[in-house]
Automatic annotation (TrEMBL):
Similarity comment text for this entry: Belongs to the peptidase U62 family.
Domain (Metalloprotease TldD/E C-terminal) ranges: 231-446
Protein's UniProt name: Metallopeptidase TldD-related protein
SUPFAM superfamilies tied to this protein: Putative modulator of DNA gyrase, PmbA/TldD (SSF111283)
Domain Metalloprotease TldD/E central, chain residue ranges per copy: 119-223
All residue ranges annotated as the Metalloprotease TldD/E N-terminal domain in the record: 26-90
């Protein structure tokens, strides 16, 4: 795998070639990585895979016209051809008044922050197989489990480099280690499946395979024998596994491009109370060992922690340079991109901070409630905020789980859900986008 220094040098030299070939501006992104994964099923090895990939993307400008190309061939002849093709394409592209690199004075200067994103550990396939087997064995040992979809374990490492003709060149490394298990409980038409998984930047932070497997087995067994509750209005609690999906809808609605297109249900709500008092949504790209931590964004701007919602008030959009120009604001350091194409905007480690009441207190807050642990389908309108999703989970009475529910639909409007939701105190940083248990005091529940 390329070192950060090697990757930065290749990207910077490609930008230099583009400018010499006539581009008025250019940037290049390089991603190089390797990954190994092992999967097992019913105690037998099912698959072993290993990949080593690298790709570089070049974006060039001819005034307000731009074009992007990418290649996995790093030879001089191939890169020369890449530059020539990109410059020719840009000359024929339509003009975009908002296109362009980030302003040079906004770019990251000096040393990038150390995010503890890279662990050089490289477990061999035998070690990964042992971890996958341990997870599956633990899952299959749980009472009620009757079959297995398998266990898996993997590791990966990558180098990301970015260079721009505006004066930025930088790179960072990241690693990942994973383990999962998925099993089936029950027999015949009563069968139910569930899973558990964990991903960590450092191998030492990865949850024990046996714990992952045990949780998968318990979850599957608990879902056997579901019923459909009577339709009506219920308090609905979103388990942390699915609560983070509400942050996904929030993220889409606060994207600068969606706001500029007027396709966001939060349009014109900047500076207003969108959530209940006390609710904070934080984006923290500098969290050590965070799954989505990054020292700079996809345009070379510095990243920083930002409360997108503070005490319930929406404080900021999330915008790359192009969207920021459309909105008449400064870019927010959230540009996100692949090796080809123009940047978009996305948060990094996004979390809804915990509230004061425990999960148990939220479960007991109403005589009867629904706890959602799985969401199915889409059914969300990003323009109006209308929300309708298939769901499964558990019926709660008197603060206790009395049985599983399945094939139901939960519906409301995200504006109402955001305004009334209450976070529990059980936040854990596990996924890169994280939320604690969330209580929505009232939603419509119907048969799916």
């Amino acid at each position: 795998m390329l070192s950060p220094e090697q990757a930065t040098d290749i990207a910077a030299r490609l930008v230099e070639r583009a400018v010499k070939a006539g581009a008025t501006a250019a940037d290049a992104m390089l991603v190089a990585g390797s990954s190994t994964s092992v999967s097992v099923r019913l105690g037998e090895l099912e698959d072993v895979s290993r990949s080593d990939d690298r790709e570089i993307g070049l974006r060039v400008f001819a005034g307000q016209r731009s074009a992007s190309v990418a290649s996995a061939n790093f030879s001089d002849d191939s890169l020369d051809e890449l530059v020539a093709r990109a410059v020719a394409m840009a000359a024929e592209a339509p003009e975009d008044p908002f296109a362009g690199l980030a302003a040079a004075e906004l770019l990251l200067t000096g040393a990038a922050p150390d995010l503890e994103a890279y662990d050089a550990s490289d477990p061999d396939p035998a070690a990964l197989r042992a971890r996958a087997l341990a997870a599956e064995v633990a899952a299959r040992a749980m009472p009620g489990v009757t079959n297995s979809n398998g266990g898996s374990a993997g590791s990966s490492a990558s180098t990301v480099a970015l260079a721009t003709s505006g004066g930025f060149a930088g790179a960072y490394r990241a690693s990942g280690f994973s383990c999962s298990a998925s099993v089936v409980a029950g027999e015949g038409s009563a069968m139910q499946r569930d899973y558990a998984s964990h991903v960590a930047r450092f191998l030492e932070d990865l949850e024990a395979a046996e714990e992952i497997g045990r949780r998968a087995g318990e979850r599957a067994a608990a879902r056997v024998g579901p019923v459909k509750p009577a339709p009506g209005r219920y308090p609905v609690l979103f388990d942390p596994r699915v609560a983070a999906s509400l942050l996904g809808h929030f993220s889409a609605a606060t994207s600068g491009s969606a706001v500029a297109r007027k396709t966001s249900f939060l349009l014109e709500r900047l500076g207003e109370r969108v959530f209940a008092p006390g609710v904070t949504i934080r984006d923290d790209p500098h969290r050590p060992r965070g799954l989505r931590s990054r020292p700079f964004d996809g345009e070379g701007l510095p990243t920083r922690a930002l409360d997108l919602v503070a005490d319930g008030v929406l404080t900021s959009w999330v915008a790359d340079s192009a969207a920021a120009r459309q909105l008449g604001i400064a870019p927010t350091g959230h540009a996100s991109r692949g090796v080809s194409g123009a940047p978009g905007a996305a948060p990094s480690n996004l979390s809804l901070l915990p509230g004061t009441r425990s999960r148990e207190e939220l479960l007991a807050a109403f005589p009867r409630a629904i706890l959602v642990t799985e969401l199915i389908g889409q059914g969300v309108n990003g323009v109006t905020g209308d929300y309708s999703r298939g769901a499964a989970g558990f019926l709660i009475e008197g603060g206790e789980i009395v049985g599983p529910v399945a094939e139901i639909t939960v519906a409301s409007n995200l504006k109402d859900m955001f305004a009334t939701l209450e976070p529990g105190s059980d936040l854990e940083y596990r996924r890169g986008v994280d939320a604690p248990t969330l209580l929505i005091p009232e939603m419509t529940v119907a048969a799916g």
